[in-house]
User: Which sequence fits this backbone?
């Protein structure tokens, strides 16, 4: 494999995806605003560290993006020193959760410029990125998707094509994330009740996980990141809040009532206002613990107050 692939955004998700591409023998041109993110690759002969998105596009025909916000997507693709300023890139693949509105706007401009675009957000967290087991949810031109499907399988075990319109990948990712956010917030409250009632968290989770209440939080996040007290799932609370707000905006645009989801969004807003924005998103359980006067830990229940 000698093709050079561009990659912009070497954060918690981007770093392990870059490592997987290198392991698959791709040559890379990379960029991140934080020089510390690219420093480990300075002496790697298979990697060119670039000073800007434009410089990445001058090295690579396809550029993958792993960015934190819709604003970052616009700046990296269309900004003053963005990818499209190079005038040479064939395709941009956005692996970020940028929201349907921003994605459609960027895609429309890329159509005008004659640049291919795949809306391809990923799901599966940092561990999935490291293991290459991410789900990749792709929307865009079908022929373009087929052309880059092999590349996407390097980072994702489950690659889904959902439609030809940019924004459809984002819509599906936001649907996934509102359910993930709901599971985590609701499980925090439910587990606080179980723990304060004198049931050991490990026992409560064992019961839930073979019963109808099981979900992604009871099966993964609580055993690994909450009951252990590590709170290290690898995704910031403020990013989850961004995603659920993007879901709310999309639902409003489509005229779909989301009464239950708005309550969940309110819980994530409260977590951000409580100062948990930069913290791991599993710390929403800490917020519930503080309000409930109990710690959800794998030891005998010990209420801190009534």
Assistant:
């Amino acid at each position: 494999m000698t093709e050079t692939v561009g990659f912009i955004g070497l954060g918690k998700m981007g770093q392990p995806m870059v490592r997987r591409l290198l392991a698959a023998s791709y040559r890379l041109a990379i960029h991140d605003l934080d020089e510390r993110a690219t420093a480990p690759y300075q002496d790697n002969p298979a990697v060119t560290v670039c000073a800007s998105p434009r410089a990445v596009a001058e090295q690579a025909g396809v550029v993958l993006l792993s960015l934190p916000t819709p604003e970052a997507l616009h700046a990296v693709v269309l900004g003053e020193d963005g990818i499209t300023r190079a005038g040479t890139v064939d395709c941009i693949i956005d692996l970020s959760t940028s929201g349907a509105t921003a994605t459609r706007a960027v895609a429309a401009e890329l159509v005008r410029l004659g640049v291919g675009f795949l809306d391809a957000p990923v799901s599966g967290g940092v561990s999935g990125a490291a293991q290459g087991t991410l789900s990749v949810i792709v929307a865009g031109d079908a022929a373009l998707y087929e052309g880059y499907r092999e590349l996407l399988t390097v980072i994702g075990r489950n690659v889904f094509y959902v439609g030809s319109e940019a924004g459809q990948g984002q819509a599906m990712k936001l649907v996934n994330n509102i359910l993930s956010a709901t599971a985590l917030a609701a499980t925090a409250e439910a587990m606080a009740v179980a723990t304060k009632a004198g049931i050991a968290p490990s026992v409560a989770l064992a019961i839930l996980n073979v019963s109808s209440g099981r979900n992604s939080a009871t099966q993964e996040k609580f055993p690994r990141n909450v009951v252990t007290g590590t709170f290290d799932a690898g995704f910031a609370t403020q990013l989850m809040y961004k995603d659920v707000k993007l879901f709310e905006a999309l639902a409003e645009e489509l005229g779909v009532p989301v009464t239950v989801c708005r309550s969940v969004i309110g819980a994530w807003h409260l977590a951000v206002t409580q100062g948990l924005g930069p913290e791991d998103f599993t710390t929403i359980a800490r917020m519930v613990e503080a309000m409930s006067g109990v710690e959800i830990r794998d030891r005998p229940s010990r209420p801190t107050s009534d």
